[in-house]
Amino acid sequence: MSDSDHGDNAVVADEAGLKEPVGQRAASKPGRSKRKRKSGRAEGRSSQYWMIVSSPDNFRKTRELGYTIQGLKSRHRRRVETMRVGDRLLYYVTGRMAFAATVTVASPMYEDHTPIWRSARRDEDYPWRVHIRQDIILDDVDWIPAKEIAYRLDYVRKWPPEHWTLAFQGHIHALPRNDFAIVEDEVARSSRRKKPLAG
Description:
eight-stranded mixed sheet
């Protein structure tokens, strides 16, 4: 299964879940992108939390770039415009149906049509991009199966339990802060289990 268009009906997220205060504020770095978008509008707002649904191939492309840049589909321009430095991204990889990494947004949105990521639509070039910096990146074998923690996420409860996978269709989802924290805790726990072997 690729991250091709599934329709927007499963993409709508409750923005109210994002208004909780967060300890770290978004830092402002003017002039870093090609086309800066409405970056002054969110002065002092709390970080937002996002889930990127990616095919294995597209996630591999992001990895090959050292988790320094993320492109998002053309139809999600308005969502990406709301991203700010300090926002957090969580990666869900289709096919494996698993969580693989967390990163932090490091620039405002900019437009770039350099071909990197692919979609079933030939004209889709993921033009709305942000620079990112890696937080926790898991090896493939350590990815967290979504079915193990999906029942704990408020976002997933919008769908009947037997249709929980609908929560992971579409390309970008706004998540409540608590849901992001639940998944990132599991990702961090999996990452820590590997570290003693490396030392």
